[in-house]
User: Fold this.
Amino acid sequence: MMAWAAMVLTFLALAVGGYAVAVADRLIAGACGWPHQGNAWLAPLARGAWLYRQDANVTEAPDRPAWRLAPALYLALAALGLALVPWSPTLVVADLATGVVLWGSLEALATVAIFLHGWSANAPLALIGGYRYVALGLSYILVSMFVLIGVVLPAESLKFSQVVAAQEELWNVVRQPLGLPLFLIVGLGLTFWGPLNLADSTDLAGGTASEVSGPPRLVWEIARVAMLVAFSGIAATAFLGGWLGPWLPGPLWLALKMLAVLLALAWLGRVLPRLAPERCVTLMWVVLLPLSFVDLIWAGLEAL
Amino acid sequence: MTLVSLLLVAAALIGIGLYGALSQQSFVMLMMGLELMLNGVMLAAVAFWALSGAGAPEGQLLTIVVMAVMAIEMAMGFALVVAVFRTNQADMTEALGELKH
Amino acid sequence: MQTSLFADAIFWVLAALAVFSGWRVFRTDSMVRASFFLLASFIAVGAIMLLLAAVYLGLAMLFMMAVEMMVMALFMVMFMMNPAGLNPMVMVHQHRLSIVAGGLAFAVLGALALFVEFPDRPLPAGLDPVASLGREMLGDSMLVFESAGIVLLATMIGVVVMSSHRGRFGAADQGSLPPGLEPGGVPAGPQPDAEGSGGHHHHCH
Assistant:
């Protein structure tokens, strides 16, 4: 019964959260005076309807099953990720004994899904986008793993519900100050959002999505915001104490924290500078990876 | 899901992997054959651990060691491919004929 | 271990998927497709491990193999003559021997599985597989675990040395010429002296 309720909640969060990201992104752009089209509240819906009624483009000799399934696969990974998030001590779809490891594997499989999306179109710009994403993905996965191991140490468990329970006195965002900033950058990479949008960037005329239009494009864009929502759920659970909080019920607290993470990501996506792909990879390996080592050592010393 | 059925699946994977490793001309495909064999080995190890070894922790450790071996095999294999490609412009096993002499 | 009918059905589907995609690896036109078929085989085996209560190992398979196969696909596109699979091709040697060897390996191992009596000792009731693996790795078998770590480090160093473009005396391919396309023929690739003697000017005319 609880699992069914949690499942409904998860799908609701994917839908509402996805819409919230799209609106927030446009509102932030509007507040900073950057160009964006139309009314921020209606534009996402209008774009969805526009894409839905388009014809789906076809390239010459694509790998059709992979091309059509890659967006669905990415969306499924996002849904699986959000299913790991506990809304309260009992309200959770799947509280696996190795939930944190499953999230790590989802990040790795997301690389595969995005590369497939770029490769299977059989078009040069899409393939370059896929390549760029793999270079980026291989760099941030390690950062993500070390940061998550740091979160797991005080909980002494790979279960997300235990990770939350271990933050009863002190949230991980305070206990491991390096963790959340690093993890937010991982989130921008995972959803190729803002400055880390190397895969689908405008200099590649849309990258992996450059040859995609119509309903497959709609699924791809929905999957991308859904992954952002799933990531915010994991970030709120791992660093912001999940369901913990006074006065309000647990699920509401989690939803508020997820919204805060989503707003932070949308804001970061707009204000952080863009880097060239090779510089971006250098930054990941030379600066962020050592920082994640520092974070892990910090967490280890504290757990002693 | 008996031990026999699990071992048969593992044996099939090892057989296909051996076929691939012996028959493929391209280095990378050859490595895929080796990986498929190790896949079967890991399945057999976990099957023995769960159904015949009473959950002895060494069974799981063996699987971890096999995973490390796979990572090493991949890394060394790709380094060799890069080195050979740089000197010979080739990615076929036949291109290394001069190693015989 | 008492397995339900449902778990049995899932197992057979996964087993069929693992063997089928393993077979497709060597029967598909495209190298990239081959590496993703191999990934599918690994994922199916990882899911079977999850069914067998190896909850850490099954998921470790997922993230290890997703990254490995991704790297493999990249190398495919880099080195292969026909990465995307637009032209059908077969690149095999000693084909009959390989089929016999593979079949023989399956027959021998399968016979072992069928005719050898293995002890029937299922998992104890209260076993926590993750904790048990962790205690073993950082307890009795620490030496094994640490040695694996050292070997991986040595591999990393060796691999960088082997594949690095820079050598002690300059670039690795400096002064060397690629071999000819036919034995003893003109070296493949761009010719250094043709490039040097103002080859670009000729194009201008």
